[in-house]
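Page 47, continued from p. 46.
Same chain as before, 742 aa.
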Amino acid sequence: MSGEFNRQSQAPIVNRLKGISGLPVQWLLPLMFFCLGLLYLYASPNFESPDSIYHIGVIKWIAEHDGALPVQSPDHDHLYEQEGSQPPLYYLLMTPIWLSVDTADFDEFYYRNPLVNLGHHWRLGNRNLVFYKQPYPPDLTGASLAIYVIRLVTLGMATVTIAAVYQSARTVRPDSVGFAILTVGFVAFNPQFLFISTSVSNDNLAAMLGALITWQLLVMLRDGFRTRRSILLAILIALMTLAKLSAMAFVVTVALSGIWLALRKRELRGLVILGGSMLLCWLLIASWWYWRNLTLYQELFGTQMMIANFGGRSTTIPRLIVEEFEGFRRSYWGLFGWFTNLTNEFHYVAMDLLTALALAGLVVYLLKNRKKSFELTVCCVLFAIASIGMAMVIWFTLQTTASQGRLAFPYSAAISLLLALGLSALRIPTGLIALPMFVFAAIVPFVYIAPHYDHPPRVETPPETSVRTFARWQDITLIAHEVPPQRRWTAGDLIPITFYWRPLAPSDVPLSLFISLIDRDKAITTIDTFPGWGTLPTTWWQSNTIYRDEYLLEIPEGAKGFSSVQLQIGWYAFPHGNDIQPILENGKTASTYFIPVGAFVGTSPEQNAPIDATAIDMLFGDSIQLKAYRFAGGDTLELYWQLRKTLSGDWRVLAIVFAEEFQAGHAFEILMQADNTPDVSLGYLHKGEALRTTHAFEVPEYLEDEYPIYVAWYNFDTGERLAIPFAENMLKLPTFTFASAP
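Result:
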């Protein structure tokens, strides 16, 4: 190896790492990964990773049918769904664990959230697939215990993956512990790999076998053919073909590597042993499952039956890149739950930057080592594993919606080695990359996973800052709430809301809460949820316990409206029950319960004067300008204004009709008056914004003639009027012919 690599291996940080607790790094790194994995195991409840419930369904089926595998059909209705078409090794290994625990309570334990948000990370709340009576600390009884044990064993498989990745890195560069730490960091400190490693999924067995195959393949390239190693490789490949179809990338790569090695070293015997071992081990270990596929489904791999169960599609590679690469990229580095819980955007940008640097560094590495056979061969083999594997992922996702980063984890050893080779060629210090990745991976469970599944906290009493109130829906009592002071809201804003509920008793059926932001005549946005934003059904509430229940009500981008708004709060029996009418503190039943929150100012062309309005220019005080007016329907006046200076207070528009033209100091007769407020109080508007006031007069039947209309602005609390150069600060508009309603 080159001198620059030898110098890197002497970095002080590596020496310190090797001395921690007297453990060598090859054991310390897997141990660190396992400890991190326990955090993810704790933070993520049993069913909150993609397809885990379906993998559990396969295990459950095999356990309940004396070891028989599920038989797929497009119209079946079984818990295992499309995963019943997967190679069975993982499920067969986990079935004894399921059988060793009393899982009779599974149907009760698997209580699905019917309002669950699947795949929409921009939507808030209801991110739990299942209701958990005890999310933290985990419930370690019955079916829940069985699943946690399976997840712990699966984490053990992932820990073996880390050990194999480390050994692969030492095989490529035996003189650099720093390079090995960097390589392992891209797997062990990848939050998504940690998350999947603690879920019930055959991806973890495939990743373990793929990493072991990569390690042994690199050793074969370095040391040449050995009979024992060829047999070991053959067994690992056969097992992987019985674990996941991603094994085909390794079958092809090992076969091509064996041919290249035989040609280079003229060892035909070694190639024959390798090829014969691969064929024989596959026939003995895995061929029965492929024969079963041919017999049952008339296809070797069972993929078409899987697609028939999951749902097929037809798309193109360019469309796949444009529409789904973003999701694939994020779900490789950190997208939790059922594709709902993102990390910080900086995390994805940082990993993109590292990937780009690594690719540039690979070019540098290849140029520096262009005359070194082993280094070039390693790069070619690693690239073959990654590229063939990704080609298989693309082929599959062209046929069905499956753009998930975890599908690349069986090739994680090859991918991480390539990334590490590129970055080390640029001489970027290992600690500068691995240490931040480790720290971030350690905080992810507490910041980005667990908060979405915990029950709403119980409190002794609402805080002093809350607004004490009272409303009761059957046995649900609202005793206080917290909302922001009334203010201006616009599209894209989030309104934080906190309720303090005190149930008198748990409900017999699950009751659903709705929170709507409403203006004069419509709902701008609505949340439908179970309490705790979907985590705690009312059937599980504890009597006379105060729950602190927090929400964020998101106003959609592009929402239209221009008016004062309030929150409408209500409950109904899910899914089709009528709204429950609240009983207020005075004992009266109300139609609904409202909380004022201010005004919503969104896109609303109604505030601008239409083309048939009559232009006018009059400034009231120095604050608001009348731009146009329009008479409509024989009884309605519309006034179009523009705010020139911000105003606070309860300002209203006087619209009055006199029998004759008004003269100061003379007697006058008021025929009609239709004062009104703007749709949005002036205190919520900004300088330059347009607004409209509408004045509908009640025209007596006998009154059908032309009369002058006068308008003015006045403060309802003080009686003050905005000044204009006319008597009583009133502007006379042209006469209007009134018509009484038919």
